[in-house]
Amino acid sequence: MKPTPLKRQSLATQVRERIEGHIRAGDWQLGARIPAETELARQFEVSHNTLREALQGLIHAGMLSARPGDGTYVTATDRLHAAFDHHLEQSELAKILQARLAIEKSIAGIAAQNCSEDDIKRLEAALQACKNREGEGIDADMAFHCMIADCTRNPILSEIYRVIAAYLCRHWTPVLHQRQYEPQAIALHDELLDALREHNPAAAEKVVERLVEFGYQSI
Fold first, then answer.
1. Quick one: three-class SS letters along 94-159?
2. What is the set of domains in the chain, with CATH numbers?
3. pTM of the model
């Protein structure tokens, strides 16, 4: 059986991959509006039709979202993010909460083993920003937890957790925002940071159990 010759990539495919590269590199952040079609066509030196074909591919994949009369926005940082986010939207809340607890416990345990002194300093600053009620809704709280995920040194865990965090911010901010500043919630966050500072995986996992349970009592 003769192998099928490989097809050369079309211009639209090359442009799509370059746009994906910009998104993964953080040049265009999640939720940001990307440059207008005219500017992108000039930047990539392609026709408007080629550019639109590339954009449509990313819209279909869930990485971009077109808003008529407004522009095109980044809705996922990569295809894994887009696929996972779509799966969350179709899942039962109880299953999502169960998955979040399992993932966050693992993240806390691994982070406790791997976090450095610099990581702890960044976490202290992030937690203080949460206590100062910086940002909107539960953004500061989620940023703190996403930073813990980064301490695992595992980009897959970090990305999965960011998808879950984005889902929570999108759907549960009004409810969770009411509880994150309660004294018990603040105390639990302090305990979690202490467990990470002491490199105690078991303690970190136990605090996460209590923290997630506390947060979802209102849901």
1. HHHHHHHHHHHHHHHHHHHHHCCHHHHHHHHHHHHHHHCCCCCCCHHHHHHHHHHHHCCCCHHHHH
2. 11-77 (1.10.10.10), 91-218 (1.20.120.530)
3. 0.69
